[in-house]
C-alpha cells in the first residue's frame, strides 16, 4: 500500500505535537516547585525534568522538519516549507541548547515561536473554512502573545502563562492541521 506524502506529513505533525504536549506535562510534574504561571516553559530543560523536556523538543523539531519535506511536495510552496522548517529548527535548538546557554537558547526560542506562528497563519491559504479561520486565529493568538511576552506584558498570567499562550496555540495548530492534512481533501491550488 502506497502512503500519500500528505498523510505522512500530517501524521508526523500529529505525533510531534502530542508527544511534545505530553512531554511538557510530565516534565512539569517532575520539576519540584514548578509554577506554570511564573516559570518559563524552558525552565523544564534544566534540572530533574531536563531529559524528558529536551528530548521532546528535539523530537518535535525533527518530526516537523521531516514533515516540512513532505509538505513541500504536497503544496509546492516554498514559503510554507520555509516557515515550518524554520520553526522545526528552532525547536531542535531549544532542546539542544537549554536555557543555561542563554543567548543561543533565546534566539532559538524566538525562531520557533515566530516561524511556527507564521506557519499557522499561512495554513489559512490551503484550508477551507471553518478550519482556515481556526488556524489563522491560533497563529494570530500566538503572534500577539509573542509580542506581549517580548514587551513583558503578561496580562496577569505571569511570564509562564503568557509563554503558554504562544506555545499551546502553535501545538494545537500542528495537531489539528496534521490531522486534517492526513485525512481530508485540501483546497484546490
Features:
single chain, 189 residues, mainly alpha, 6 helices, globular
Give a short synopsis of this structure.
This protein has 189 residues and is mostly helical. The chain has helices spanning 5-30, 50-75, 78-96, 102-122, 131-150, 158-183. The chain has six helices and no strands.
SSE arrangement:
Elements: H1 5-30, H2 50-75, H3 78-96, H4 102-122, H5 131-150, H6 158-183
Could you explain how this protein is built, in words?
- This protein has helices spanning 5-30, 50-75, 78-96, 102-122, 131-150, 158-183.
- It is mainly alpha-helical.
- Helix 2 (50-75) packs antiparallel against helix 3 (78-96).
- The mean pLDDT is 94.
Multimeric organization: single chain
Please state roughly what percent of the residues sit in beta strands, choosing from under 5%, 5-15%, 15-25%, 25-35%, 35-45% or over 45%. under 5%
**Count of distinct strands:** 0
Quote the average pLDDT: 94
Portion of residues within helices = over 70%
Distance between the termini: 26 Å
Largest sheet: none
Structural class: mainly alpha
Radius of gyration: 16 Å
Uncertain spans, ≥5 residues at pLDDT below 50?
A: none
Q: How many individual domains?
A: 1
Shape, per Cα inertia axes: globular
The number of helical elements comes to 6
Order of helices and strands: HHHHHH
Amino acid at each position: 500500500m502506497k502512503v500519500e506524502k500528505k498523510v505522512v506529513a500530517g501524521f508526523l505533525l500529529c505525533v510531534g505535537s502530542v508527544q511534545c504536549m505530553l512531554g511538557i506535562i510530565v516534565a512539569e510534574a517532575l520539576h519540584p516547585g514548578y509554577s506554570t504561571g511564573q516559570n518559563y516553559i524552558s525552565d523544564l530543560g534544566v534540572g530533574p525534568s531536563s531529559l524528558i523536556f529536551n528530548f521532546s523538543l528535539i523530537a518535535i523539531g525533527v518530526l516537523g522538519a521531516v514533515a516540512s519535506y513532505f509538505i513541500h511536495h504536497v503544496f509546492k510552496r516554498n514559503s510554507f516549507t520555509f516557515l515550518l522548517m524554520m520553526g522545526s529548527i528552532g525547536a531542535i535548538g531549544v532542546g539542544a541548547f537549554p536555557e543555561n546557554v542563554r543567548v543561543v537558547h533565546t534566539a532559538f526560542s524566538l525562531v520557533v515561536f515566530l516561524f511556527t506562528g507564521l506557519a499557522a497563519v499561512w495554513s489559512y491559504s490551503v484550508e477551507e473554512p471553518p478550519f482556515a479561520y481556526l488556524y489563522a486565529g491560533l497563529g494570530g493568538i500566538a503572534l500577539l502573545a509573542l509580542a506581549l511576552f517580548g514587551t513583558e506584558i503578561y496580562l496577569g498570567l505571569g511570564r509562564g502563562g503568557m509563554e503558554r499562550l504562544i506555545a499551546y496555540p502553535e501545538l494545537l495548530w500542528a495537531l489539528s492541521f496534521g490531522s486534517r492534512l492526513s485525512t481530508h481533501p485540501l483546497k484546490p491550488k
